[in-house]
Amino acid sequence: MALPFSRLRRWFALGAILMIATVAGMYFYARWRVHKIVHEVPAKIGLDIQQTAEGFSISKSVEGRTLFTVSASKAVQFKGGGRAELHNVKIVIYGKDAGRFDRITGDDFEYDPASGNVSATGTVLIDLEANPEGMLHSDQTAPPQTRDPIHLETNGLVFNRNTGNASATGKIVFQTPQASGSAVGIEYVAKTGTMTLLSSVALDVSRPQALRLNADHGVISKQPRQVVLAAALLTRERQQLKSDQATFFLRGDNTVDRILAEGNVESEFHGRAGAHARSDRAELFLSGTRNQLTTAILSGNVQLSSQGQGQGQAAQVAEAAAGRITLHFAGQSGSQSAGQQMLKTIHAEDGVRLVQKNSQSGAVVMSVLASSPTKGRAQDVEMTAPVMDFIVKDGRQLERAETSGPPQIVITQPDANQKTVVTAAKFTAKFTEKNRLATLHGEPDARIVSGKIVDTKIVDTKIVDSKIADSKIAGNKVAGTPGQSDRVSSSQMLDVVFRPEGGIASITQAGGVTYVDGTLKAWAQRGEYTAADQLLVLSESPRVVDNGMTTTAQTIRMNRTTGDAIAEGNVKSTYSDLKAQPDGGMLASSDPIHVTSRSMTAHRSPAVAVYTGDARLWQNANVVQAPTLQFDRDHRSLVAQGMGQSPAPTQTLAQPVSTVLVQVDKSGKATPVHITSARLNYTDAERRILLDGGVTAKGSDTTVTAQQMTVFLRSRSESQASVGQGTPGQVERIVAEGKVVITQPARHATGDRLVYTTAEDKFILTGGSSGGTPSIFDAERGKITGDSLTFYRHDDRVLVEGRETSPTVTRTQVAR
Description:
By secondary structure, the protein is mainly beta. Helix content is 6%, strand content 60%.
């Protein structure tokens, strides 16, 4: 999330180092020097002059060293009232240790002994300069070179000898090698040691970085040593920092110890990516003579935001909020950054909230885990926690973040009407070079909840044991819709990968993964979700249960938009919770239906599953096995497909459909019927198995082959009435067509159409292999032909019928 922490560092540091180190130190020194000099001048000059003098100088020395010299080209004292005028005055101050070379010059001064005021009637120039080598040279020797003097210029300076107070109503201009500035009106109160800059305080800093400081007015006090500026405004290029009041606390050497900004503390950056920050209070701590920023504390409704251009000209908005944010700074090593203070860590607490928004065509566009992907959409991500700690790289790039206390991430997309909430006991996040979320790790007790958005929103949410609780609702937008189930997945840990342009790219969960979506429940040791294709991939012992269907495999992929699933590797499905179908046939029992295969594709609506690769379906003793099986759970219908060329009736398909129907007679004896075919189609409600592509049916002593075959089954209720419980799939009759061949131990028959009925155990064969009559061959009796041949499985009877024009009936019965 692109947050303006690095810009805050520059604003705070510049405001502390450049503004206060210059202004406070200069004013304190100038105040002391002007007070001391102007206080001594009248005592030395104004009281002793009784007449006009042309050119003179006065100096004061202690222990052979001159403290100061005062010279004027002309001095006049008026006897009436004792007022005195000084013209072309020059004052040089050396100090007790000869460590100064300060100069004050002015054209006209006036002293009024009645009021005690010494007033400058014109411009007064003040140059303040240190002379650390003064004691090494002879008395009154000027410094060998000028070293960064502080220059002040003002009009209307008034000093009162009795009180020690001084004031000026005009504009005061000051200048240093690094800065220049001004103020209108100044008041100094000697008793309290307080100097007030009355209005229009302005400071322009030229180096090391250009900036301007403005304030409505300011107060500089000696006890406590501090500077207070009202309505302070600091500007630098496209940056601004302002507050209702800024207080600078000074050490004994006039360096800044800390800065306190109070009331509507705001900072702004105007550029390609705008940024804004505000808080009720900001406190900065500095160290060393260079006023290096070490710590900054923002408190009271802290809010930060930035906005820039994303891909496709979509505006990207990042926001942060907390009750309190602490920023720690430290120096950098290296030739280019030596001595610089860089932001190192950020500690945010008291309801921390980070938001990453995306806007398309002026409207906020957000996407969510459970939505179908659409080009141009981006996701809105919001992360909250009681406490967050950030590690900053190179003073401007968020590198890593950790949460304390139960955190949560909320992803919303109004156009898809979706919201997702991610929680865990702890989050660890990493960021991109653009300060956007790159990855997120959460553990333990990770949990993802997604659902529909209704016309309400969460305005206050408490998190208890990583679960959302006690939510107050108002306005619009909240996950969860009455009558609709949320999607919930939980695990020991999760890892989220974000797209560079923002939004979720993928989520990986590990350790006891559980996923619930309405009636669908899934378990695995690992789950991987990708937003681009909306797939949730479960691996490491996955198991999925949906409406009584349980599936296990090596890998299961589920599409969260359509509800479809793909299972691969050792697939096994069990359909349970079945109701018995009295009118059903092969799959009419309430016992479970089992299916195994190498892979499976399931469609949630309609409830159809396609099994491929050695697929095998069975219920009780009835079995269907094929390369491909398509099973419809709701209709209990089945479509099976073999592999290879359609064979001749006597040939075997490379991978045929194999069907086993166990027949139970009245005595309870079970006999399997094996049927192979190229294709199978069955619907339980119709109780009819359609087989084609070369069919072979084998019983205990009879084999029938044909191009196609239809097997009609008794209803489950009829089977129970005739042979007892647990006997679904009982054959009622079989109709075979196309090159029919019947093989029995003592018979061989051919025809084009066969009708077999189990009740009489009777075969009716019509047609011939070449359009002629059907035939039956008996090794003992030879070949019998006719338009229709009727024979029975358990005896030697054969009924031969001729054509209607010449009907012929032949009965042959051989006693056994």
